[in-house]
Amino acid sequence: MMIFEKPSLRTRVTFETGMTQLGGHGIFMETLLGKRESTPDIARNLCRWVDLIMARTFAHKSVTDLAEHATVPVINALSDLEHPCQILADFLTILEHKRKLKGLKLVYVGDGNNVANSLLLAAATQGMHMTVACPQGYDPDKGVWSRAQALAARSKCKLAIVRDPREAVKGADVIYTDVWASMGQESERELRARIFAPYQVNQQLMALARRDAIFLHCLPAHRGDEVTDEVLDGPQSQVLDEAENRLHIQKAIMVTLYKHWQKNKAKYLKKKK
Ligand code: CP
Ligand code: NVA
User: For position 217, which CATH number holds?
Assistant: First the structure.
């Protein structure tokens, strides 16, 4: 079951294609959770019919409510807080290009949004150093930041938030950016365009990173805002490998979760009675 409260190109097509390639069927539904029926009630009904639920939501609580009340696995396909499927695809892309994750330096330039939050958690889990360069007032989520710090202490990597993008990108193996106004923040677009202007990833900024640095962006991109055409279409950009990898990694996520659920379903069914 694929529930979308927000638009999508990559997530919708890769989940549906992935499920078809695995021999299953994806059902697409565009709806606002909790509007016609409560989210727990939707979850309780859906899990009587389907084997997996993925949801793209505004409130993060909508995904956790689905997970709490459904007896089948629930996948976060982007909430206002996190975008974990994207980041697993990103790390697969980094691994393909750099042959390792641990010890690399990832620099995220721009808004401390859902993508930045999930990157921090993944980097800290894998022992990858990560710097976020963002304007004051646009830091990553505080709760995520403290979870990431705890993980980084264990994996022995450094996480930092800085204001100067030029300083941040020195020595970077990976430069990452995302839109300045996420879905749901459209009314702030002009204000954000002014605040984030110094955070554009352009050729001058890329030149300050390692010569073999790669550029990533979850897409969709606002060309000329957070990234120039020259960088997005340039030789360091791996954004299409990154988009392709959504398909492969999500097939792995679906298979892994489904196998885990089949093995443990007695426990899950009992817990949710
Ligand atoms: N990157 C990503 O999640 O793309 P869509 O919004 O098109 O699904
Ligand atoms: N931060 C962006 C990511 C889109 C894939 C958003 O939430 O709109």
Answer: 3.40.50.1370
**Rounded Cα gap, residues 212 and 214, in angstroms:** 6
- Number of structural domains (the chain) is 2
- First and final CA of the chain: distance in angstroms? 22
What is the H or E stretch that residue 216 is in?
strand 214-217
How remote is the CA of residue 48 from the centroid of ligand 2, in Å?
Answer: 31
Name the residue with the closest Cα to ligand 2, atom 2: 182
Closest C-alpha to 106, from 213, 203, 200, 242: 213
Residues with CB under 6 A from ligand 1: 8-11, 78, 86, 218-220
Shared domain for 94 and 150, answered yes or no, is yes
* Confidence bin at 24 (pLDDT 50/70/90): very high
pLDDT value, residue 272:
67
Task: Tell me: pLDDT of 273 over 60.
Answer: no
Neighbour tally for 130: CB within 10 Å: 27
